[in-house]
Structures are given as C-alpha cells and as structure tokens.
Amino acid sequence: MCRFNLIMIKDESVEELLKQKGYQKFYDDLCGNQAYQLGYCNCDSFVGSLIDRKGMKYSDTIAISKKEKLERLYQIENIMNQPGYEERKEQFLQMRMKHTNELDAFTEHINDYEMKQTDSIQKDYSSEEFNNQMGELYKEIRNMFTSLENQHDYKKKSEAYAAILRENQLLEESTCYFLTKKEEDELYSRSIPLSELLELKDNLKLKDNLKSEEVEMIELPNQSLVIGEVIASAEEKSSDTKNIDEYNSYYKLFSDLLKYVPSFIFCTIWSEPKELKNVKTVGIASLIIDDLAFLDYDEMIFITK
Question: Which of 166, 213, 237, 290 has its C-alpha lying 20 to 30 A from 219's C-alpha?
Fold first, then answer.
C-alpha cells in the first residue's frame, strides 16, 4: 500500500500539461474532479511527512529531525564498533534473506505479470494511449497487491518479518554503512553497467541500440557510506534540501496550472481515498512548505490564483 499525491481538477484543458509533466489520470471522478498522479507511488514524498508534529513550525520540525537523525547515526556507529558486530550482522543478513525470499515467493506471479504486461504495452501502444494503458496497469497491480496483503498466509509471514525488523532496527540500519573507506571500496562499487541501470537485460531490441554495452558504465553519486563521514556530513548540512526541492517543483507546477484555471485541489491519500475534507484554501503566492509537509491523508487544500 502506498501514498499518492493527487492533483484534482475539473477543467480538462490542463490535462495535456499534466501529462507533459509525467502525470497520469488516477481517477475519472473524485469529488467531481479528475485526479492525476505522478509516478508509481509517492511514498518518498515530503508531503505529509511531518504530520506527527502538526501544529509546529516547519523550521522547528527540521531542527528536531536533524537532531534525531544525528542521535540515530551515533547509535549506529556505536553498534558497529562493538565486539562481535560482524558476526551479528552476518547472522541478521542471512535471516533477512530467508524471510524476504519467502515473501518474494508470494509476489512472484504479480511481478511476472507486470513485466509481461509492460512489455506488451510497450510493443502495442505509444504516446497518450501508452500512458493510459500503463495507468490502468498500475491500478491493476495495486489491486493485486492489496488482495495479497489480505491473505492469511502472507499476512502471517509479513507480520513475523516485521517483528524481526522491529527487534533489530539499529542493526538493520547499520548494514547500509561501512566502518572504513577501505571496506567501502572493497564491497561497494560506484559504477554500474548502463544496460543494468536501465533494466534492459532482457530487452534485446533496446539493448541492440547501446554501444559497447559490456563496457559502458555509469558512475553513481560519490556519497560516502563510511559511518564517520556520514555523521560529519549530517552535522554540517541542512536536512531539508530534498524537501525544499520537491516543494519548489510543486510550486512551479501549481503556478503553471493557474495560468489556465482559476483553482484546483491538491490532496494526499493512502492507497484509496476515504472521506476527503478541505482543510485550507490558499492563494498560490501564500502557499508555504508547511501547507504540504503537514497535510494528512485524505486532506485537501484548494489552491487559487
């Protein structure tokens, strides 16, 4: 189940603009509006991410979040420096792999179906119809996962795995980091074959268009995963750069939409909309990052010129 940030609008004249921005129609009629959504889901969005601290100022929550993040990193560093850490980590990784493999067995048929349908749509459709077909496929896949999540065997296995992760939260987080630069260089590659990055291994038609596929590599961002360097970076940097970038992106899109329509609705939902309620009407010039960061599920804001 996922978060979806929706732009709800009555006027179809802006549909082409939204599609140019990568949005797809999500609902034909939601509270009398057509609803559009970007991407597979919006679970990594900052929208609604600070709802637990609603009532505070955005700047205050960011300061608290930075402090909490640093405290967490210090705890992780402490665990990584404890005697026997490598053995504990290896045991945990093996246990995690066992459980994820068992859960993957439940979803294998869904993933296979999605790949086959995607290949078929890529071959048979293009342009607007391609986007429409992919939108319908996303809905179908979401429904399949929702149905799976309600199955007894899957729920039992999933809950058992979740309990293990809760009991080993710091240990799991520590597996993302390294103690030394040497260890990082030995175990973590910062380059990847272009075809693998684009997930083209099984797509021979596109693969033929790549030059020197065996040797063409893409360099990954040079961000250190050595825990000491991660802590030093977190101490220096603001923790909301990504949030600000996403807010600016939304602000630009909203401003573009208001060149063609007098108003529209923005809301966020979890999986499926329930009882939507309007919590604010705001002119675009007065829209601040707080309005999006503290937006709860099924809450709508009306944005006007």
Answer: 237
